Backbone:
């Protein structure tokens, strides 16, 4: 009876440690939400405001790009994942995603906004979400 109880306790302890390790490696080191927008219109125009990724005025069926440099400021390798949200997400193309960076390494990423030809002429907004995680212990 005592051996069975010890086996159960050891199993619970191992499961708890495994779960804690999985949670630790899946918790983001950094998560940044950057407001973004564009205006579908009849001419092209720039919007270079700081703190956002704004694509300005875009003629439907044409695209424009913005560059962003991402740097790993941590002392361990990281994985960076980029997502978009909001009504703009259908029109955003990211040059590279789910990439690994070594400590102090940087990578230039290009965000392209390409609204379809049949889009309604108006402003579209959303967010670009950059999530940085530790590389998992199997990498």
Residues:
């Amino acid at each position: 009876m005592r051996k069975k109880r010890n086996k159960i306790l050891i199993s619970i302890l191992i499961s708890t440690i495994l779960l804690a390790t999985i949670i630790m490696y899946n918790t983001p080191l950094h998560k940044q939400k950057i407001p973004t927008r564009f205006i579908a219109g009849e001419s092209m125009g720039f919007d270079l405001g700081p703190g956002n990724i704004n694509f300005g005025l875009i003629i439907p069926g044409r695209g424009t790009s913005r560059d962003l440099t991402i740097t790993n400021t941590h002392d361990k390798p990281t994985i960076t994942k980029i997502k978009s949200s909001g009504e703009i997400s259908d029109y955003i193309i990211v040059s590279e995603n789910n990439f690994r960076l070594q400590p102090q390494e940087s990578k230039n990423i290009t965000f392209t906004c390409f609204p379809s030809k049949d889009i309604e002429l108006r402003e579209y907004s959303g967010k670009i979400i950059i999530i940085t995680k530790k590389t998992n212990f199997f990498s």
Remarks:
- Residues 79 and 97 are 9 Å apart (CA to CA).
- DSSP finds one helix and eight strands in the chain.
- The chain has one domain: 29-134.
- The domain at 29-134 is CATH 2.60.40.10 (Immunoglobulin-like).
